[in-house]
Specification:
The protein is of the alpha+beta class. The chain has helices at residues 3-20, 27-34, 38-49, 53-71, 76-82, 88-99, 103-125, 156-172, 237-249, 251-254; strands spanning 135-139, 142-150, 182-186, 199-205, 219-223, 226-235, 264-268, 280-287.
Length: 289
C-alpha cells in the first residue's frame, strides 16, 4: 500500500472521528471507514497524530465536556451523556483525572474567572464604557479547503507558515480570484485543551467544487447555513487575543445570546501572504442559537 493511499485513509478517518466522536465509534466502524484492519490504521493514526485512536476520542469527549461546563447551563449528567459516557461516575472520574478537579468545581472556577475578568474590564472602562458592537449574520452553505495547524494559538510564526502553505497551494492550483476569501476555523479553547492539541484550520472558501482530490494533509469541509454574532477587529493577530477575552467576558452583558456548539470562524477580507506582519481587518463569527 503506497503512502498516498495511507494518507487519504487517515484523512478520511480523522474527519469521521472529528464529526462523530460523541457517538459509539467501535472497531467495526473504523475498519469500514478506512478499509484497514483496526491494528494497522491505529499504527498509521498514532504515527501521524501522536495519539492512538482511543486516546484521541476520549480526549475530545472530555474537552467538549469542559466546553459545555464553561459556556452552557447543561446539567452535569446531561453533559456526561451528550459526550458519550454511559455513566456519570465514569465521566466524573475521567474528567477529574484529565483536569484535576470535579466537573462541578471546573464550572465554578470558570464562572469565577470570567467574573473577575468582567469586573476588571468594567473598572478599566469606567462609566463611559462603550458596549461591544456586533451584528447578527447568517453564513450560507459553502465548501472550503483547509490545512490544520495544531499547536499554541500564540505561535504566530507557525500559523503564518501554515497560512502561506495554503495560499501557495491554492495559487498554484489557479483558484485565486478577486472574490477569494481566506478564513480560519478555531476548533478548540486554549483554556481547555493542551497547547499541543489546539486545532486551528486555515481555510480558503471554494467558489465551485474541486475537480481534484487535495494533496497531502489538505482537506475539504462543508459549512452549513448558520447564525452568527459578527464582530470586527482591526489590528495585528496578536491583539486579537485580548479582543476575544473582552468578547467572552462581556458576553452576558452586551450580547446575551446563547452560544452554539460549533467552531468560531474568522474571515480576512484583505488577506495576503504578509498579513500576519501588519494590521488587518478580521471578521469574527461566533455561532449562536
Amino acid at each position: 500500500m503506497n503512502s498516498e493511499i495511507q494518507l487519504e485513509r487517515y484523512k478520511k478517518l480523522l474527519t469521521f472521528i472529528d464529526e462523530n466522536f460523541k457517538d459509539d465509534i467501535n472497531i467495526e466502524k473504523v475498519e469500514a471507514i478506512c478499509h484497514y484492519s483496526y491494528r494497522n490504521i491505529n499504527r498509521i493514526f498514532e504515527a501521524l497524530h501522536h495519539e492512538t485512536i482511543g486516546k484521541y476520542i476520549k480526549r475530545l469527549r472530555l474537552e467538549k465536556a469542559a466546553q459545555y461546563l464553561k459556556y452552557s447551563e447543561m446539567g452535569i449528567s446531561d453533559i456526561s451523556y451528550e459526550v458519550g459516557f454511559e455513566e456519570r461516575a465514569a465521566f466524573s472520574k475521567a474528567f477529574k483525572k484529565r483536569y484535576g478537579c470535579s466537573p462541578s468545581a471546573f464550572r465554578i472556577g470558570s464562572d469565577s474567572l470570567r467574573e473577575m475578568t468582567r469586573l476588571s474590564l468594567l473598572e478599566e472602562a469606567g462609566t463611559n464604557r462603550q458596549k461591544l458592537q456586533f451584528e447578527i449574520e447568517y453564513l450560507p452553505d459553502f465548501e472550503y479547503i483547509f490545512l490544520e495547524y495544531r499547536g499554541n494559538y500564540e505561535n504566530f510564526t507557525a500559523i503564518e507558515e501554515t497560512g502561506n502553505q495554503l495560499y501557495n497551494y491554492v495559487k498554484d492550483k489557479g483558484l485565486l480570484s478577486d472574490r477569494s476569501i481566506f478564513m480560519t476555523e478555531i476548533v478548540d479553547d486554549s483554556e481547555i485543551s493542551d497547547s499541543i492539541h489546539l486545532r486551528y484550520n486555515v481555510g480558503f472558501v471554494l467558489e465551485q467544487p474541486l475537480k481534484f482530490e487535495p494533496a497531502g494533509l489538505f482537506r475539504i469541509k462543508k459549512h452549513e447555513r448558520q447564525k452568527y454574532a459578527k464582530f470586527i477587529h482591526k489590528g495585528t493577530y496578536q491583539s486579537c487575543v485580548d479582543f476575544y477575552q473582552k468578547i467572552y467576558a462581556l458576553w452576558i452583558l452586551d450580547v446575551g445570546l446563547e452560544l452554539k456548539d460549533l467552531p468560531t470562524l474568522e474571515y480576512y477580507p484583505n488577506y495576503d501572504e504578509n498579513s500576519l506582519q501588519q494590521e488587518v481587518l478580521t471578521e469574527i463569527y461566533i455561532p449562536v442559537m
